[in-house]
Amino acid sequence: MAMRMADMLSAGAEIVRPLVELNNVGKVYPNGTVAVQNATLTVGEGEFLCFVGPSGCGKSTIFNMIAGLTAPTEGHMTVLGTTPKEARKHNEIAFVFQDHTLLPWSKLIDNVTLPLSLRGVPKKERIEEGERVLELVGLKDYTRVLPRQLSGGMKMRVSIARALISRPKLLLMDEPFGALDEITRQTLQNELLGIWEREKSMTVLFITHNVFEAVYLSSRVVVMTPRPGKIDEIIPVRAPFPRGEDFRSKHEFSEYVGTVSAALKH
Ligand SMILES: Nc1ncnc2c1ncn2[C@@H]1O[C@H](COP(=O)(O)OP(=O)(O)OP(=O)(O)O)[C@@H](O)[C@H]1O
To answer: Ligand 1 atom 8: the closest Cα is on which residue?
Structure first.
């Protein structure tokens, strides 16, 4: 069976098709806060990268720059071979936040198809795509349900479905599972890895404060320093995908958790 790109990269192969490139990128906010300094990073197509670092080290700022929501004040960056703003215009980047931001009065099918409605996609196509992504996240029987009838984990699934509806090449996830209980969180980690495995070329960048989560999900873990945020170390997790529950109890897993935790304490 052919090795997937993430496996090759975590095994140390060279990135053939860079999807995101940051070259000495810095961000100083207008109030003088130096949020990010000298960030250099190349992300290959199909990778799953987790970002860990203390609160306020600039993780969200890096994501906002990659998404074209705020511009770097230093350095150069490209996303999908163009500027982040341009990549966002082509609907190739999707965002998932911890706060699911669902419309409370809209049924799930309307919530997940909102990005298509805003683009004027015809109803038939919208519904087909909505059903496709709700099925991907295990909610195909809930199309006509309102968000308030769902648990926190289910709301997060809807939020992921809404992000997937545009078939993004790049999925940015900012602490998506931070508010969930441990069991739900682990279930969603497995589901997310399953979706990513199926989508093959989709690249996922994921912020978490949880070192266990970072190791379980990643092909590489990006460790950041306290403010001003710098990329301190990039740790490849050389365990093949698909990863199952048994990975969590392996000696190899604890070793990676130890390595990332030690890097965070530098
Ligand atoms: N719009 C803004 N204007 C000024 N300072 C900002 C702005 N947004 C963020 N900051 C500051 O920049 C620094 C980095 O913030 P950022 O949100 O990127 O960090 P983070 O690592 O994502 O934090 P957390 O883990 O707490 O979410 C922080 O000191 C924050 O207060």
So the answer is: 61
**C-alpha to C-alpha distance for 253 and 74, rounded to whole angstroms:** 37
Say what the pTM is.
0.92
Find out whether the beta carbon of 225 lies less than 6 Å from any atom of ligand 1: no
Q: How far apart are alpha carbons 46 and 29 in whole angstroms?
A: 31
- Residue 214 Cα to ligand 1 midpoint, Å, equals 20
Going by CA atoms, what residue is nearest to atom 4 of ligand 1? Answer: 29
Q: Say how far apart CA 15 and CA 78 lie, in whole Å.
A: 15
**What tokens does 202 get?**
């989709």
- Residue 140 and residue 131 in contact, taking contact as beta carbons nearer than 8 Å: yes
What is the chain's mean pLDDT, rounded?
91
- Pocket of ligand 1 contains residue 54 by CB under 6 Å: no
Distance between CA atoms of 132 and 139, rounded to whole angstroms? 10
pLDDT digits (tens, 9 = 90+) for 156-195: 999 999 999 999 999 999 999 998 999 999 999 999 999 9
ipTM of the complex: 0.97
Q: Where are the alpha helices (DSSP H) in the chain?
A: 5-10, 59-66, 84-89, 108-118, 123-136, 152-164, 182-199, 211-217, 251-264
Q: Residue whose CA is closest, atom 2 of ligand 1?
A: 29
> Which of 32, 81, 31, 39 is CA-nearest to residue 64?
39
Q: Read off the pLDDT of residues 199-236 as tens digits, 9 standing for 90 and up.
A: 878 999 999 999 999 999 999 999 999 878 899 999 99
- Nearest by Cα to 196 from 45, 39, 27: 45
